[in-house]
Amino acid sequence: xxxxxxxxxxxxxxxxxxxxxxxxxxxxxxxxxxxxxxxxxxxxxxxxxxxxxxxxxxxxxxxxxxxxxxxxxxxxxxxxxxxxxxxxxxxxxxxxxxxxxxxxxxxxxxxxxxxxxxxxxxxxxxxxxxxxxxxxxxxxxxxxxxxxxxxxxxxxxxxxxxxxxxxxxxxxxxxxx
Length: 177
Hints:
Strand content: 25-35%
Helix content: 25-40%
Number of strands: 7
CATH topology: Aminopeptidase
Strand order of the largest sheet: 1-2-3-4-5-7-6
CATH class: Alpha Beta
Low-confidence stretches: 172-177
Radius of gyration: 16 Å
Shape: globular
Largest sheet: 7 strands, mixed
Mean pLDDT: 92
CATH architecture: 3-Layer(aba) Sandwich
């Protein structure tokens, strides 16, 4: 299986909205309604393309996964939990189509995010995930991301993870939590 990861383009917006909505529906079916249950619109995807870098993973012509990178701190991230660094990059909105999950595509996306972060001279990749059965905390931990804290934002419990890049030290004083 050859997966190609490349920047998303506006013509991908409908397929990306459908992928995010399918993932939300799948999580809702498995774990019940929660903040992960929101539908994604084409308009929302186009906005994401204007405010961040959207990447797609393709198996032939089908988009099977996506993630976004941005240097701008997302609304749900509280930086006090992370190792201070001058150039963090935030990994957001990662999704793998339900029928493609469990095949290593998510890991491949994270490897690509590492490479992209390094080329952008980022010191760390930061992300959050739901602190719930629908969250992917175990996945990120198994991929070498380090849990740095937990918080609740707008009634959604979150786990924060980071990964040092470009030889940056990843050390955090646990007494700050």
